[in-house]
Amino acid sequence: MTINWFKYSSPASFYSLAGKMIPIFAFAAVISLVAGLYVGFFVAPTDFQQGEAYRIIFIHVPAAWMSMFLYVVMAFWAGIGLAFNTRLSSMFATAIAPTGAMFTFIALWTGSLWGKPMWGTWWVWDARLTSELILLFLYIGFMSLQAAIDDPRRADKAGAIIALVGVVNIPIIYFSVQWWNTLHQGASVSINQAPSMASTMLLGMLIMVFASWMYSIAIILKRVRVIIIERESHTAWVAELQKKDSIR
Amino acid sequence: MNWSSVSDFFAMGGYGLYVWGSYVVTLICIVAEIWLISNRRRTLEKQYSLIRNINIRRDKK
């Protein structure tokens, strides 16, 4: 039996596959969101230092992780699109950017609302906060550059350059709390040591991280499907879908 | 159970503004994102059914 590894790299076949996958990921997102919020608000205990304010962690940490992770995935697909000229990879990069920017904004917003009661300030220009803000600007830069170029294939290439250069910011964000003396606390969860938090808090947080993953996959697939139809409108397969009235 | 009453839950030990300010804004962002994409999708579907109807009418003639 031969497997055609590249079957789903064609927008036409990926389009229908994505349509089938969206409900699965959306369902997983809703279930894990409910479970995560339940554990976060009703199972996890009050923090002995921060009181109830720490409950912001259940969105702050997942959002911050997603903001960095989505950027790497976006840059990866943009790079593949640039190197191999594959249409779907570039469409994916374009579809990831708004969701990544949204998570970056949420990370900054919730961080600010957490910083006010704990540090006594909404914002400081410390390394972690500043590099995360630069990440937001990178996302916005990527999106506005693509929006400013009429030819989508050229927009893909220009965007890919920004995305790839910006990757250097990701380790800076991640290690900023070690490299510089920041107001932001160090990592609560890391690979080489036990997490510095109660196990139910950690559980709630990890479920919320899973929920953010599922949400991101569902919403990005939904967006990439729209982008596929918009960009492939001149092709025979879209015309075929249209004739059958089944672009849904 | 962490909360003795509903108002206790909303007060969040005096940090209500910060905690709910985080959750509500996140909710707004997510709802807005879903709405924007659905809207983009509906516009596309409308365009396509419009073209389809024109084609059907043309084919009938």
* Percent strand of chain A: under 5%
Tally of structural domains of chain B:
1
Q: Give unreliable regions of chain B as ranges.
A: none
Rg result of chain B: 24 Å
| Average of the residue pLDDT scores of chain A | 89
Helix content of chain A: over 70%
Order of helices and strands of chain B: HH
**Helical segment count of chain A:** 8
Percent helix among the residues of chain B? over 70%
| Overall outline of chain B | rod-shaped
Instruction: Sketch the topology of chain A as an H/E string, one letter per element.
Output: HHHHHHHH
Q: Of all protein chain pairs, which has the greatest interface, and how many residues does each chain bring to it? A: A-B, 37 and 30 residues
Derived structural class of chain B: mainly alpha
Structure description:
The complex is a heterodimer of chains A (248) and B (61). Chain A is mainly α. Chain A has one domain (21-244). Chain A is built from 8 helices and no strands. Chain A is globular. The two termini of chain A are 32 Å apart. By secondary structure, chain B is mostly helical. Chain B has one domain. Chain B is 84% helix and 0% strand. Chain B is built from 2 helices and no strands. Chain B has helices at residues 6-11, 16-60. The radius of gyration of chain B is 24 Å and the shape is rod-shaped.
